[in-house]
Design a protein that fits this description.
single chain, alpha+beta, Pyruvoyl-Dependent Histidine Decarboxylase, Chain B, five-stranded mixed β-sheet, four-stranded antiparallel β-sheet, 9 strands, 27% helix
Length: 182
């Protein structure tokens, strides 16, 4: 089974219980109706990226749906939780790409976006033989990746939220959702 389509989504949920806040985040992301199975980080060669709306429309309630999922939660007042998914796609349509995920606390949306995009692009760069200095800032390496002509695009999907002071659980998630082959 090799998926031919994928979409990216994110969500945030709040509730008095941890499980219900996760359910609310899944609903906000539009994927609560699926039985999600977490998979690792490979973006299949030739896979087409859909918009969130088109991707959700292709899902069937109850189906087993594979995804790369990042999720974080807290009920600590004023604590920021964050989740992000990164993608790096090779220029060659015959080669696979990489998806990365991060979940944690305290980071900003921009910090998480840069981190997950960097992780995905760096993993892809290492298997494509792109030479770079891992100690350089991501912005510098990103330019090297692009100039090599071997990485065509990278992107990030991130959700960050701060917990309320009213003892509610806050859950954030970001996901790369594979459309099951029909």
């Amino acid at each position: 089974m090799i998926p031919k389509e994928i979409f990216f989504t994110r969500g945030v949920g709040r509730d008095r219980t941890e499980l219900q806040s996760f359910e609310a985040a899944l609903r906000d992301a539009g994927i609560a109706q699926c039985n999600l199975v977490s998979v690792s980080s490979i973006f299949p060669a030739g896979c087409k990226t859909l918009t969130r709306k088109k991707g959700i429309e292709k899902l069937t309630a109850g189906e087993i749906t594979h995804c790369v999922l990042a999720r974080s939660n807290t009920n600590e007042p004023s604590r920021r939780c964050c989740a992000g998914i990164g993608l790096a796609v090779p220029a060659s349509g015959d080669h696979y790409g990489y998806i990365s995920e991060f979940h944690g606390h305290g980071k900003t949306q921009k910090q998480v976006a840069n981190m997950v995009e960097d992780m995905a692009a760096t993993m892809l760069a290492t298997i494509l033989g792109i030479e770079f200095d891992p100690d350089k800032a991501y912005d510098e390496r990103k330019e090297i990746y692009r100039m090599s002509g071997k990485i065509v695009r990278s992107q990030a999907e991130v959700q960050v939220a701060e917990a309320h002071d009213d003892d509610l659980w806050t859950t954030v998630l970001a996901a790369a959702v594979f459309i099951p082959p029909r």
